[in-house]
Amino acid sequence: MVNIPVTDESLCKLSIQELAPMIRDREVSPVEVLTASVARIERLQPRLCGFITEMFEQAHEVASEREIAIAKNEYLGPLDGIPVGVKDNLAVAGVAATVGAKANADFIPEADAEAVRRLRAAGAIVIGKENMHEFAAGGRSNNPYYGAVKNPWDADRIPGGSSGGGGANVAACLTFASLGTDVGGSVRFPSLLWRSWNESDLWQGKSAWFPADMGAWRPCRSTKQERCRFRADVAGLFRS
Predict the structure, then answer these.
(1) R_g of the chain computed on alpha carbons
(2) Smallest Cα–Cα separation from 108: which of 87, 88, 83, 78?
């Protein structure tokens, strides 16, 4: 794991709306924000199991690049330098997209999903692939292969699903936002349990991949959804 200095985890509890001007005005750097998020994830991930794949080294490289760019007055906007999570059924180039299934553990996409590409183009930093109900086919996120996602408020209660990892991570301030998918409530259900805000965009495209059956993959019509702890944050994320 990359060795980066520890900073105050209180940064993780800020909204994007609060944090973005601080990054823009160089009061805090993307590396410092990422360091705070990594420290919090390392402390709470063993209890919450919100991630399937952590991307700390890749994230640190991007954070360093954004820090240099912002110092050159190349600030991209309110998502620049903000750590976010991505549900593990959305493609991130070079990182496994398991869809929460052991059978797909070795599936490595060659390109980003369009939604992920747009987030990155806006300067957001993908910090990890988030745990979910296997094949996005349930509302408990009790994954038998990558661990059961825990409810941050009460470990004896379900976190919702299928985007349970993203919901837990946002609610516990491990990420500032989460990118998920929703066909029948996969983001809306966890958001209801976490009292977080979500927004949706009905779309169809070749970069969003879902299981058509156990042995094949195809693009399907679904809902791309973003989730944040604060309403103003999700509005800004949705516009990206």
Answers:
(1) 16
(2) 88
Are the C-beta atoms of 226 and 185 separated by less than 8 Å? Answer: no
Taking the C-alpha atoms of residue 80 and residue 219, their distance in angstroms, rounded to an integer, is 29
What is the enclosing helix (H) or strand (E) of 40?
helix 30-48
Active-site positions read 87, 162, 186
Domain chopping of the chain, boundaries: 9-239
What fold, for 9-239? Amidase signature (AS) enzymes (3.90.1300)
pLDDT averaged over consecutive 10-residue blocks of the chain (240 residues)?
A: 53 92 97 96 96 98 98 97 95 96 95 92 97 92 95 85 89 90 73 54 38 32 45 52
Cα separation, 100 vs 95, in Å, equals 14
Q: Let me know how long the chain is.
A: 240
Note the pLDDT of residue 39: 95
Which H helix or E strand runs over 21?
helix 16-24
Tell me the C-alpha distance between 55 and 204, whole Å.
27
Query: What CA–CA distances, in Å, run from 21 to 3, 14, 99, 118?
Result: 27, 12, 35, 20
Cβ(174)–Cβ(186) under 8 Å?
no
Q: 195 to each of 71, 126, 164, 225, how far by Cα in Å? A: 36, 23, 13, 15
